[in-house]
Design a protein that fits this description.
By secondary structure, this protein is of the alpha+beta class. It has 2 domains: 290 residues, no CATH class; 161 residues, no CATH class. The chain has 15 helices and 13 strands. Strands 7, 8, 9, 10 and 13 form a 5-stranded antiparallel β-sheet that branches.
Length: 499
C-alpha cells in the first residue's frame, strides 16, 4: 500500500525530524479556522509569542511535547484508534518515517495558521513498549500494571461492563486524531493505515465529538466541563484568578515538579495518558433530579431539581460555581474565566469545616479539587490535565420520555499527569470513592464515585439539612474500561522507540 500524495509530501518534508525534533518548527499555513473549540468559560490558550517566552524562561521545549497534553478539553471532533503492534520490526521504521512527521506539537496548536488539517498524537501502553523492546522502567507502577489490573482499585464492579477489547493487555497503543470534521479525520486515518500496512492491527476505536451548538464544551449531563484545568509554568502566560498553577513536572515527566527521580532520560517531556470510556445514563440521571427536587422556599419544583444537580456537581450547567451562586444559575458568571474559578469554599460568614450551605463536601468539584478544605496555599500534587470529549448521540425523544438509556453515550475521559498514582488514581480512589473525604461521613462523589456497583449514600446535598442522607442506587456514570498509556516526546518517538 502507498501513502497519499499529501502524506508522502509530509514525510519528505520532515524526513530529518529525528535530528531536528528539538528545534522549533514552522509548518506551512494550512487553515483558515481552528480545529479546536473555545467556549467563553475556558481560559484562552496562550499566543505563540507568549507561550514561547514562558517556555524559554522555564527551559521547556514546546516543539518536543505532543499537542494534546497541554491544551485541555478543546477538541471538536476526535477519534481514538486503539491498536496492537503485529510486527515490531516493520513498525519501528514506519513510526519514524510515517507517524512522527505527522505528530502535532504544542506550538502548532497555538496559532490557526500552523494548525494541521488533522491533529495526530500517539501513546503506548506498557505492553506496547515491551513489544517494541523498550525495557526501561518508567517509574510508574500503575502504568506498568495496566488499567485492567487496576479495576478494583478504581471501584469498577469487575470487568462486567468493560468493552471486551480493554480487558487484558492486548492494546499496545492509541492514535489520537482530532479535527473540525469527521471527513478530515477519516482521510488521515485512511492515509496512515495505508502507510503502516500490516505492521499494526486495529483493536478498537471510539468516535467522539463536542456537543452541538451552544452545548459545545458541555458533557452529556449538560454541565460545562473542563473549566478548572490548571495553568502550567512554561506554557500558560497569564493564569486566570483562582486557576491552580502547576510546575510543568506535575504533567510532564522529567521537568521541575516531577516527584519521581528514577526516569530514563528519553522519557523527559512525555506524559502518562489515562483513558477511560465512561458511559453516562443521562435519562436516568434526569429522572433522579426530577423525582428528588430540593424543597426550599422560593423554588419551583424544576428549580429544586436543577439545584440538586448543581449541588451534586458543584457547578450549574453554565459553569457557574454554586459556591458563588448557591441558589440560582448565573450564566454570566459561568462564562467569565476571570471569575468562574475564583473561589476557595471558604467564607468569612461561615465555618469552612462544617458549613455546606453553599457547596456540599461531596460535590464532584469539591471531591476532586478540595481547595481551601486542605488548607492554603492549595496543594498541587494531585492535579491532572483533563483532555476528554463526549461521545455518542444526543438523548432521543423516546429515551427522554421513558427515562431509559437505549443508545450509549458518555465521556471519553482523558487525563495527563507525570504520576498516575498521584494523579488520576488518587483522585478516583482516595477522594471520589471515599465516604470520609473531605470529612467523615459525607459519602462518595455522587457523580463519579464508584463502589463496585454497591449503592452509595451521600450527605450534604440538601442545603436545608446537611445531615440528610441521599441513597443513590444507580451509577449514573458506568466505567466501560480503558487503559494507561505513555505519550512520549517527539524526540523519543524519533529515536528510542524507533530503533
Amino acid at each position: 500500500m502507498k501513502l497519499s500524495i499529501n502524506l508522502v509530501s509530509t514525510v519528505v518534508l520532515f524526513s530529518g525530524l529525528a535530528s531536528a525534533a528539538n528545534s522549533r518548527r514552522a509548518p506551512t499555513p494550512r487553515r483558515a479556522s481552528s480545529l479546536l473549540i473555545n467556549p467563553d468559560a475556558f481560559p484562552d490558550l496562550p499566543t505563540v509569542q507568549a507561550a514561547t517566552a514562558a517556555a524559554d524562561a522555564a527551559g521547556l521545549n514546546l516543539d518536543d511535547i505532543q499537542g494534546d497534553v497541554l491544551i485541555g478539553m478543546k477538541k471538536n471532533q476526535e477519534l481514538f484508534y486503539f491498536f496492537s503492534i503485529a510486527d515490531a520490526v516493520d513498525f519501528k521504521p514506519k513510526l519514524a518515517s510515517d507517524i512522527v512527521p505527522l505528530i502535532t506539537t504544542t506550538t502548532q496548536l497555538l496559532d490557526v495558521s500552523t494548525e494541521p488539517t488533522t491533529l495526530v498524537n500517539i501513546a503506548f501502553s506498557q505492553s506496547g513498549l515491551t513489544t517494541l523492546n523498550v525495557t526501561d522502567a518508567l517509574g510508574d507502577s500503575a502504568f506498568t500494571g495496566g488499567q485492567f489490573k487496576d479495576l478494583k482499585t478504581l471501584g469498577d464492579p469487575g470487568s462486567t461492563n468493560w468493552v471486551p477489547e480493554f480487558a487484558g493487555t492486548g492494546i499496545h497503543g492509541v492514535l489520537l486524531f482530532a479535527s473540525d470534521t469527521v471527513d478530515n479525520i477519516n482521510t488521515a486515518v485512511a492515509g496512515l493505515e495505508a502507510a503502516l500496512g500490516d505492521s499494526i492491527t486495529k483493536v478498537y476505536s471510539l468516535q467522539a465529538a463536542a456537543r452541538p451548538g451552544s452545548e459545545a464544551g458541555h458533557e452529556h449531563f449538560g454541565f460545562l466541563d473542563g473549566i478548572s484545568n490548571p495553568a502550567i509554568t512554561g506554557f500558560t502566560a497569564n493564569p486566570m484568578p483562582g486557576q491552580s498553577v502547576l510546575n510543568a513536572g506535575a504533567i510532564l515527566v522529567g521537568e521541575t515538579g516531577d516527584t519521581v527521580t528514577t526516569r530514563p532520560a528519553w522519557a523527559k517531556d512525555g506524559s502518562f495518558l489515562v483513558f477511560r470510556q465512561l458511559e453516562q445514563l443521562v435519562p436516568e440521571f434526569n429522572k433522579f433530579l426530577t423525582d428528588n427536587p430540593i424543597v426550599e422556599d422560593g423554588l419551583t419544583a424544576q428549580q429544586g431539581s436543577d439545584l440538586l444537580g448543581a449541588r451534586m456537581v458543584g457547578r450549574w450547567k453554565s459553569g457557574a460555581p454554586i459556591d458563588l451562586a448557591p441558589l440560582f444559575d448565573d450564566p454570566a458568571l459561568g462564562a467569565d474565566p476571570t471569575r468562574n474559578n475564583n473561589f476557595t469554599f471558604a467564607h468569612a460568614d461561615s465555618v469552612l469545616a462544617t458549613n455546606q450551605t453553599r457547596c456540599p463536601f461531596s460535590a464532584h468539584i469539591r471531591k476532586t479539587r478540595p481547595r481551601a478544605d486542605l488548607g492554603t496555599p492549595e496543594e498541587t500534587v494531585h492535579h491532572i490535565m483533563r483532555a476528554g470529549i463526549p461521545y455518542g448521540p444526543e438523548v432521543s425523544d423516546a429515551e427522554a420520555a421513558s427515562s431509559t438509556t437505549s443508545t450509549e453515550r458518555g465521556l471519553a475521559f482523558v487525563a495527563y499527569q507525570s504520576n498516575i498514582a498521584n494523579g488520576f488514581r488518587f483522585l478516583q480512589q482516595t477522594w471520589a470513592n471515599s465516604a470520609n473525604f473531605v470529612h467523615a461521613g459525607v459519602g462518595v462523589d455522587p457523580v463519579i464515585g464508584a463502589l463496585a456497583g454497591a449503592q452509595r449514600v451521600v450527605t450534604g446535598l440538601d442545603p436545608t439539612d446537611s445531615t440528610k442522607a441521599t441513597t443513590l442506587t444507580t451509577d449514573f456514570v458506568v466505567s466501560r474500561g480503558g487503559e494507561y498509556f505513555f505519550s512520549p516526546s517527539l524526540s523519543a518517538l524519533a529515536s528510542t522507540l524507533s530503533v
